[in-house]
User: Which sequence fits this backbone?
């Protein structure tokens, strides 16, 4: 039986699990193995980073199936990660994680949420209300859309911890 997903704060000792999940998640898109290896080397998810930032995981049936990372910079919040295990994609969990991160950013005083979008995920982010506000050079040598969402205070975050 599958239970509803639950959101909670990540523990620092989960940094390695989360980094591996991000690489599996990126591999959902049709990238060659060499690109995914390079991507894995750019990830800076250490226990210290998890402890110092707003990292929240999505658990289903006791398994970590996704996570988001928010970096708070005053009125700007940066969505630095949004990754789902491939088996979790397309079940509404992306919206759950995104809306939770946006609500938490607003509750913590941010007025704008910004992120560099994986090109294959732009349609998802547009469904979430995001708009492309510019372009940025990524460490992997690509130009990525920089997307933004204006935040309103309203619904509290879904995360319990
Ligand atoms: C991007 C990602 C988080 C989306 O999560 P998801 O669980 O598949 O999305 P949801 O099921 O919550 O979909 C929410 C809505 O977005 C739409 N959507 C989802 N992915 C989409 C896509 N790639 N393109 C266009 N629309 C998309 C859904 O149809 C749904 O629309 P609805 O509101 O009409 O029902 C997920 O595909 C993922 O983890 N991808 C691999 C990692 C990745 O690219 N992360 C982003 C890093 S910047």
Assistant:
């Amino acid at each position: 039986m599958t239970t509803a997903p639950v959101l909670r704060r990540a523990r620092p000792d989960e940094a390695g699990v989360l980094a591996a999940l991000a690489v599996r998640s990126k591999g959902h898109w049709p990238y060659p193995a060499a690109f995914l290896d390079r991507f894995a080397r750019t990830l800076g998810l250490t226990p210290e980073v998890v402890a110092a930032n707003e990292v929240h995981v999505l658990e289903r049936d006791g398994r970590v199936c996704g996570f988001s990372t928010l970096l708070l910079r005053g009125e700007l919040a940066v969505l630095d990660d949004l990754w789902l295990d491939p088996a979790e994609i397309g079940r509404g969990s992306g919206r759950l994680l995104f809306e939770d991160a946006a609500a938490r950013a607003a509750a913590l005083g941010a007025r704008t949420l910004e992120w560099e979008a994986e090109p294959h995920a732009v349609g998802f982010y547009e469904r979430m209300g995001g708009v492309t506000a510019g372009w940025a050079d990524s460490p992997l040598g690509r130009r990525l859309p920089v997307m933004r969402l204006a935040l309103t205070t309203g619904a509290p975050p879904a995360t319990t911890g």
In short: The domain at 6-150 is CATH 3.40.630.30 (Aminopeptidase). The pocket of coenzyme A is lined by residues 25-26, 28, 82-84, 89-95, 117-118, 120-121, 123-124, 127 (CB under 6 Å).
